[in-house]
Specification:
This protein has about 160 residues and is of the alpha/beta class. The chain contains five helices and seven strands; from the N terminus they run βαβαββααβββα. A hairpin with a 3-residue loop joins β3 and β4.
Length: about 160
Amino acid sequence: MTQTFQFQAGSEADTARLGAWLADLLPQGSVVALVGTLGAGKTRLVQAIAEHCGIDRRDVVSPTFVLVHEYRGRRRLYHIDAYRLKDEDEFFELGPEEYFESDGITLVEWADRVEGCLPGERLLVRIEVAGGQSRSFTLTAQGARYEPVVEQLRRKAASK
């Protein structure tokens, strides 16, 4: 059974809380596939995760033109943006396996554009604008490795 968790963020503070939870719960070597329209909040969630890992959130920008940013804090983050890539072959040229097989957290924005290149086991995060600062996050465990993460997120949200 696929584990899914819905999180409603009414503000950037709520998004920051979700990012902190993910920074604490994601196992080493995690791959997070971020999907959402332009301006949905993909980079903002990455900033929230980074901030909780001891990385200055102002240093975390969308890697649209660089394609990959590496950040070192309490945990290592790899931030990949597939928006400007022509196809999956171009994504493979970035050497994503090196990031996927690392002990850091790899966050892929516009993951739906390179879905065939991603590991079968990953955490899928769909973000939808719910109006103003509000966002709806749907987190889906794709593979048994991420099921405990989704379950623990559900518990944390219920206790708040």
